[in-house]
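Entry 12.
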Amino acid sequence: MHHPASILKTAEANTFFMKSKLTVLIAFCLFSTVGFAQFSLGIKAGANIGKIDGKSFEDEFEYGYLLGAFLELGKGRLTIQPEVVFSQTQAKVDSNFKVVYQGAFNSAYNDEIKLNYLSVPVVLNYKLGSLLSVHAGPQFGILMDNNKTLFQNGQEAFDKGELSLLGGAQLKFSKIRVTGRYVVGLNNINDFDEKDKWKSQAIQVSLGLGL
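Predicted 3D structure (tokens):
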């Protein structure tokens, strides 16, 4: 007989992967409509200033970094920009962690958490003028390394996938692009239990170069 918590976790996982497949399908449909449109390539780097919301973590932003590449498809005011981004999110475990997870945490855990993600954002750019554009879209992230020091017996703490929404603005000076974004996670990334829901958010500032 399955435990109710495990059934709930499985249902949430199935819902999450359905959303992920939908995101990929939408991206494919968008790409197919502009398959022969004008496009440009570029690279980017910058700061990923993030935090993890939840009773177990401190309510403050920590500095990480991001590196990536982008492809801008289309011509005119509205363009599509898929990207591949490697980013690091840092957070600090709060003193409440020991209260919430009495008997389950590893007494030798490190209170500084570093999570490395490979993310694929797909954003719509709308140009407001020759220099400024705004953008928004979904992002799917894959956790590259799971923290196994928080809980006993090396149990994994974080979900391997994350679905997010992002929005921001971009300034374009010839081949140089200055971008600011706000990214909010939609799913619970706590892969241990349901005692505390963990969701991420980040402010990203990057400098890009068109190739």
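Annotation: The longest strand covers residues 112-127. The helical segments are 4-33, 96-100.
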